[in-house]
């Protein structure tokens, strides 16, 4: 990983390419177009050494041609400037199904064959390249982890520019080109991502070059930006802080010349902006270049099919000629189309690309398919995490002192920020909530990244800061994904209810990690870590709109080898879980922890042991005394843990003869069967912990049916009763929230009485006392606006 920018690596004042250079650029582009079209159609006869026959054609034609020629043009011209200027570069391919192009170009440059030797750079390898595309046992139609040089899943639109900026952060010598499809440009996340340039530090970060590809159409409709008058589009882009450079046309020779000039102009402007900031100390925010590329959709493909226009229309979006195996006219038209690229000039008799085709291709790691920045595990270094003993809170007795868990974690994160100040490979991102989530200690180590105007009243804004705050969960997620995928570390702090905004994004990242794990050449990257706080149970002034603990449900539906969910019940367990998550690789770790004062239950050493188990008995909290329990009180989450222990306390007082076991769960996946998740318990472990036939009263942080779903196969599931969030809430007192959802200590005691055989008759008076306490609670909060003194002043040793 480069520690500092290579000065003058981008040559200034480029001369226009010669006719010979343009000829070889066109040869490379034609070769890529030929391979892209061949992947959509051909099973055999890859070099057209014989006339096309139906048996040479795939039985199912899948793929997307419309965007491919434009992507091939960008790839070709990026090759030229990378080679001429000796650049470290990465490209994010935003258009949804650009797989044929990126696969074609990585095969031409040789990086694909290096990863997949069977796809050698010859006729045999070309046939495999074409056959495997969108074919059973092959590769997807979009840019996926299988494609060398990729960090961006093309299956869902909207995130390319955010990923590009995340990749550029703290990589001062890196150019990140980002091709944005005009369909993708209509999405909300992409529209918000134009503001990322206000956070890009020209001193410590690399550069992002957006290339807005306007080919005019989506699947079946025109695109908004392509239909704007150029003056209006320019005003929009300039308003975002960019200087547009236009490339427009359908004549290849003209477009090649214009694209080469646009690339040189853009890179010269980037070089000057970086030089001014790094050498002259200029602090004014640059207006970075953006290339607006207008070429026809389906360029160089069939002009019309069956009398309908295709090239330059939405009809070229996917497969321009659909009936090739059955329609002789379509078969002839396909052959004419493929031969129009003159493959005999582009590949020798053995199918190897000729010298003209490869003239623009960089060497070694400079190739876009071979850059280590797209395989971030090759660059990642272990994070320097200090000893937790220096940050842990003392716990002499459980449940007697209180701390704000996230504030304690903030001190640890601040030290990590200090220890990575020189290497700059750790960032904290969040939507305007760092201080709200009690993590503000990090500001003592790093300010908030900011390149826009500052006022005297502003606090903690820093042009070189590594805390990233913007009121867009999409952008925070995209930044962090790009940052992690290119070899760094980070943490995403978010209000629990609003992390749902990135449900779809985390889904894509989980799929990326799952696929990457199966590719031996993909090195493991640092995990994507979420800290979800300001959670459902403590929304004293926000109310119902801020209450939704369902992100955990969403994540646990995903690939079990990738996802992890932790609910630490106090400050020291939060430290232990965070330490584990920040050291881990190739996971998505979801940590749910409160920011309000809560009781300290475990010392740091006890917390380490408990978190390593993931679930365990708190012997000091129960009354088993070596006997088999009559009931198990289980809990997961900080507020449910407090209510469970308060219930155990009441049972000690009113039903001392009852044998009670208290089980706390930190790692939610422990409830799954061993065969369903790597952290799952065997039936033997689970039955030993929860019993097979005793009532289990489980107080859970989120929606109660999740616990049932995780444990439904267990022998004791018929005896499992779960309390959790039931969509009942408003702006109210902390204890009223749990009462409204029947998660309170009094209800838990009533559940015990209702479910332990024989207690319903023997403990009728105790149950009535618990019901009366709930009635007193309702009257008290309406009169006083605070919780009952017996609740507000409760502690384990009271």
Automatic annotation (TrEMBL):
InterPro entries: Phosphoketolase, THDP-binding, Transketo_C/PFOR_II, Xul5P/Fru6P_PKetolase, Xul5P/Fru6P_PKetolase_C, Xul5P/Fru6P_PKetolase_CS, Xul5P/Fru6P_PKetolase_N, Xul5P/Fru6P_PKetolase_ThDP_BS. It is an enzyme of class 4 (lyase). Residues 18-378 form the Xylulose 5-phosphate/Fructose 6-phosphate phosphoketolase N-terminal domain. GO terms for biological process: carbohydrate metabolic process. Residues 1-13 have a biased composition (Basic and acidic residues). Residues 1-20 are annotated as: Disordered. Keywords: Lyase, Thiamine pyrophosphate. Its EC number is 4.1.2.-. GO terms for molecular function: aldehyde-lyase activity; magnesium ion binding. Residues 595-796 form the Xylulose 5-phosphate/Fructose 6-phosphate phosphoketolase C-terminal domain. HAMAP family: Phosphoketolase. This is Probable phosphoketolase. It comes from Streptomyces cahuitamycinicus. The lineage of its organism: Bacteria, Bacillati, Actinomycetota, Actinomycetes, Kitasatosporales.
């Amino acid at each position: 990983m480069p520690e500092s920018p290579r000065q003058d690596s981008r040559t200034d004042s480029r001369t226009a390419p010669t006719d010979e250079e343009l000829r070889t650029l066109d040869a490379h582009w034609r070769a890529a177009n030929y391979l892209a079209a061949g992947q959509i159609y051909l099973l055999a006869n890859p070099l057209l050494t014989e006339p096309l026959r139906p048996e040479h054609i795939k039985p199912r034609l899948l793929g997307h041609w419309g965007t491919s020629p434009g992507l091939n043009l960008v790839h070709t011209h990026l090759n030229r400037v990378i080679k001429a200027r000796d650049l470290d570069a990465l490209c994010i391919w935003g258009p949804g199904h650009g797989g044929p192009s990126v696969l074609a170009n990585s095969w031409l440059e040789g990086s694909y064959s290096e990863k997949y030797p069977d796809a050698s750079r010859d006729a045999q390898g070309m046939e495999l390249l074409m056959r495997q595309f969108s074919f059973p046992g092959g590769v997807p139609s979009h840019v996926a982890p299988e494609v060398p040089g990729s960090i961006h899943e093309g299956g869902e639109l909207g995130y390319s520019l955010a990923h590009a900026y995340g990749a550029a952060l703290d990589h001062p010598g890196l150019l990140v080109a980002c091709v944005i499809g005009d369909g993708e440009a209509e999405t909300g996340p992409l529209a918000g991502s134009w503001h990322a340039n206000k956070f890009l530090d020209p001193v410590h970060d690399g550069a992002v070059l957006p290339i807005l590809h306007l080919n005019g159409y989506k699947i079946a409709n025109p695109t908004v930006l392509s239909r704007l008058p150029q003056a209006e589009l320019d005003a929009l882009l300039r308003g975002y802080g960019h200087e547009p450079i236009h490339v427009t046309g359908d004549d290849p020779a003209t477009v090649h010349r214009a694209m080469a000039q646009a690339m040189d102009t853009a890179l010269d402007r980037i070089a000057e902006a970086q030089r001014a900031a790094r050498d002259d100390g200029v602090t004014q925010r640059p207006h970075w270049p953006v290339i607006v590329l207008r070429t026809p959709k389906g360029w160089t493909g069939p002009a019309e099919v069956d009398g309908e226009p295709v090239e330059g229309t939405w009809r070229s979006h996917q497969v321009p000629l659909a009936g090739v195996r059955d329609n002789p006219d379509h078969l002839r038209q396909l052959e004419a189309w493929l031969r129009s690229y003159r493959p005999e000039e582009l590949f020798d008799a053995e199918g190897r690309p000729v010298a003209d085709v490869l003239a623009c291709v960089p060497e070694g790691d400079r190739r876009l398919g071979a850059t280590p920045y797209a395989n971030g595990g090759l660059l990642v270094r272990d994070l320097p995490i200090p000893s937790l003993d220096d940050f842990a809170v003392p716990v002499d007795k459980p449940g007697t002192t209180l701390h704000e868990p996230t504030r304690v974690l903030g001190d640890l994160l601040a030290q990590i920020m200090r220890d990575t100040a020189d290497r700059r490979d750790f960032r904290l991102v969040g939507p305007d909530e760092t201080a709200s989530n009690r993590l503000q200690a990090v500001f003592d180590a790093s300010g908030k990244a900011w390149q826009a105007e500052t006022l005297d009243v502003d606090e903690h804004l820093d042009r070189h800061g590594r805390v990233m705050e913007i009121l867009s969960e999409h952008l925070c997620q995209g930044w962090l994904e790009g940052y992690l995928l290119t070899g760094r570390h980070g943490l995403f702090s978010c209000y629990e209810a609003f992390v749902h905004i990135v449900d779809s994004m985390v889904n894509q990242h989980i799929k990326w990690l799952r696929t990457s794990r199966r590719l031996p050449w993909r090195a493991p990257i640092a995990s994507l870590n979420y800290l979800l706080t300001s959670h459902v149970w403590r929304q004293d002034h926000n109310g119902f709109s801020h209450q939704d603990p369902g992100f955990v449900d969403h994540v646990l539906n995903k690939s079990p080898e990738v996802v992890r969910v932790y609910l630490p019940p106090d400050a020291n367990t939060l430290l232990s879980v965070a330490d584990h998550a920040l050291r881990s690789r190739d996971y998505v770790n979801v940590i749910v922890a409160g920011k309000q004062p809560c009781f300290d239950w475990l010392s740091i050493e006890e917390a380490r042991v408990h978190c390593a188990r993931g679930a365990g008995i708190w012997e000091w909290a129960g009354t088993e005394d070596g006997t088999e329990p009559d009931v198990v009180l289980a809990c997961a989450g900080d507020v449910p843990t407090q209510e469970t222990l308060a219930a155990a306390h009441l049972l000690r007082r009113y039903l001392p003869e009852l044998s009670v076991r208290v089980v706390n769960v930190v790692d939610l996946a422990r409830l799954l069967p061993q065969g369903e998740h790597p952290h799952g318990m065997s039936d033997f472990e689970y039955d030993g912990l929860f019993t097979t036939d005793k009532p289990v009263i489980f107080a859970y942080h989120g929606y109660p049916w999740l616990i049932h779903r995780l444990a439904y196969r267990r022998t004791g599931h018929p005896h499992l009763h779960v309390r959790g969030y039931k969509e009942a809430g408003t702006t109210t007192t902390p204890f009223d929230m749990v009462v409204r959802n029947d998660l309170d200590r009094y209800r838990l005691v009533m559940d015990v009485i209702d479910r332990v055989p024989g207690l319903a008759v023997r403990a009728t008076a105790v149950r009535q006392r618990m019901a009366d306490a709930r009635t007193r609670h309702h009257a008290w909060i309406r009169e006083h606006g605070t919780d009952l003194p017996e609740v507000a002043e409760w502690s384990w040793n009271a």
